[in-house]
Amino acid sequence: MSTPFYVSPQQAMADRAEYARKGIARGRSVVVLQYTDGVVFVAENPSRALHKVSEIYDRIAFAAVGKYNEFENLRIGGVRYADLRGYTYDREDVTARGLANVYAQTLGTIFSSAAEKPYEVELIVAEVGSAPEDDQIYRLPHDGSIVDEHGSVAVGGNADQISSYLDQRHRDGMTLAEALKLAVESLSRDTNGGERTLTAEQLEVATLDRTRPQQRKFKRILGRQLSRLLDEHAAAGAEEPAADADADAGAAGASEEGVGGKDTKGGKGKDDSEGESGPKL
User: pTM for this one?
Assistant: First the structure.
């Protein structure tokens, strides 16, 4: 009788983690940012039917990357948990932290079970509060651990590079347009450091807006509204180089005016008029 092949628990867990990470890395990234009025979700997703960002409950939303059938099962389970808890107790008792704990238990059990493969998913659960300091964002990797995030978070194939980009540029008090601009810029960066152009058709955008009068704060940004926000982003980006050029031209005109005033004696009026008629962009 042959001796069974032995694999240490450490090696088995490392292999399962590597398997899950490779599956997640093949997915397109998702970015979640806090802004003044809530939380914005931006995903690179050309599909209009298969959503990576979804509503869970009144003030709670869910984003995921990885295998669609796996995170869709988790989303449905989260909706059922939230509905049951809100019906049994009170709607205020449904929180992002409670939902994240449920997801963590599920993912952790599947990851440590030798009878089935680990889920190739990474999740984000966010809840909008009555003020920015009350917002909650949790990231759940494939192994069921919970990471409490603040400000910005990215998951998916290029998450490390995107997270570094966001950490350097995200700030408190951003408007929705500014947060969307930053999210699109971060998603546009490829693994080689270059940039791509992402259109409205390639993006899935949603918000948890604390200013909405409805009890449900989740809202998708689609069609013309998304295109308008992206056009504002493009226009703002085009204005910055123009403003720099105007400033350079103004400095050059002032320099020429000063030189003319020094070289010409008794001709101050003439020099001033020449300085004022310098090049303008």
Answer: 0.80
